[in-house]
Amino acid sequence: MAQKPTDTTQELSAEAQKSLDQAPTTHQRLLTWVREVAELTQPESIHWVDGSEAEWKSLTEEMVEAGTLVRLDPEKFPNSFAAFSDPDDVARVEERTFICTKTAKAAGPTNNWEDPQEMKEILRDHFRGSMRGRTMYVIPFVMGHLDADDPKYGVEISDSPYVVCSMRIMATIGADVLKKMDDTNAFFVECLHSVGAPLEPGQQDVAWPCNPSKYIVHFPEDRAIWSFGSGYGGNALLGKKCYALRIASAIAHDEGWLAEHMLILKVTDPDNATKYIAAAFPSACGKTNFAMIEPTVPGWKAEMVGDDISWIRFRGDQAYVTNPEAGLFGVAPGTGWSTNPNAMKAIAAGNTIFTNVALTDDGGVWWEGMTDDVPEHLTDWKGNDWTPDSGRPAAHPNSRFCTPIKQAEILAAEYDDPNGVPLSAIVFGGRRKTTVPLVSESFGWEHGVFQGATLSSETTAAAKGAVGVVRRDPMAMLPFIGYNANEYLQHWLDLGENHGAENMPKVFYVNWFRRTPDGGFAWPGFGENSRVVEWICRRVDGTAGGVETAVGVVPNPEDLNLEGLEITPEEIQAALAVDAEEWLEELPGIEDWFAKLGDVPEVLTEQAAGLKDRLSK
Ligand code: GTP
Ligand code: SPV
Ligand code: MN
Fold it and tell me: What structural domains does the chain harbor?
């Protein structure tokens, strides 16, 4: 049982007390927790979120009134809104994200750690009175299917109506969830969130309340999350990264499955054979685009199962994967009719909340890369006039669209099958200008885990901090592993051991972002990535060729279907090259990374030695 969030009992407001007396639940633990949080945070009132259309309508209207949301032209974007955050609250804050386990080792060496009791003391001080003058929303939700064998429930308490409306898009929330939690007296993950901006009597609110002091804190041993000070995406929509990755990865470790930062793609070949592929790319490195790919190879069809998070479980020795989310929280810049028409269509269906995009003068939205023509005048994400010669982006580089996944026409019918879909291949990928070839296939499960463990990528605007710096990002999970990274890598290896390496999905490593010597992209990307998908499927079938290199099996240009593609021999060469010199320069980075991890499974240090050996031949 989780630690009580409050030490000193304080009176509740009459309205909050009334709302507790009339609570629409009989779940004792929930009632106790909601009371404790209310006593600590002192909200003006309590709202039990039912997830209804009427509730969405009244909350969005309230937010329009308050200036938090701008209603878009309903002809263009029905039932859609734009929000603009505080300029200092635009991305995940990895430095302020903590994994609090009893020992530092259980969280280390990649996570920020604090002692759970001490952290709770600090947080109680921050949460004390933090909801004064605000409504406290109680949001029952489930990640994955409500009819799953073992539904993964959570309840988010938040003082942000933006969070309530966004959670309604991203997860299954509300009365049906609460009913089933009551009926089964279900366990749920406590997800406590406050923007940390109490209102004194008569004080005027701001459009985007938040607090300069931010804490995104996980207690994996209690299965609890406390998030303070931010209203932004992954910091505040606690079902997403905090629960479905950080807490779920810890649960998955205990229960023998995997919670991963992966999209899920369904591919049907010209002979009507179907495969499911999961792909892990770091934040803002192409998951949503790959999940919604429009294949350019004739006869191939792609459908989406998920775009960000995968839960991989085993039935017998076969891996099955589910998408625990119900929405898309996609990077806006770069999403356009030429790059991702499927996302554009999903957005145009309405019911979308945009955050930090630019506004057009006729009630629409715009961001860099949305259209080839740049509008002559916009209101930028900070509310300033913008023209093409302003010399700054109109939309924030990490601006987002939040849209129900059901609006994607290319959604696979089985996307929410509680049993998941059988997984044929796992693809790792990152954003690298050099070194890493367009695609390689691992030599086997252990080598595949090595490829994942040493995945590297240039940092992006999805997290606060420098952009474009190469860092190691194991399985694209560096910011999301809810426990010790070495144990996490061992867990991957153990699954191969337990289920048999031959039964595990085949592992591939891709890089859409390699450059030619003149600085351009060597590979056109987006829909053309279907050519790589074709090769991956054919390798799974055992029918495609390739050449064994030091880093894995890489296609020769003639092994890829390049029909109809305008690409020069130099470009395809640059995309596919495995250059021993570049890789020899890469080795110290891999060795430093393993040294930093400190306690890497021996299998992986052997893999590193094997790579070094192969390179020096
Ligand atoms: P998160 O939601 O942060 O996890 O990001 P994501 O991994 O879903 O990335 P997304 O698909 O939103 O793409 C991020 C950026 O990469 C966008 O600006 C895209 O336009 C760009 N991008 C995606 N795929 C490709 C590609 O194949 N080639 C190139 N050059 N850019 C791409
Ligand atoms: C990511 O950063 O990987 C995202 C966006 O998908 S957020 O929800 O903010 O984490
Ligand atoms: Mn993501």
Answer: 14-66+94-255 (3.40.449.10), 258-325+415-616 (3.90.228.20), 327-407 (2.170.8.10)
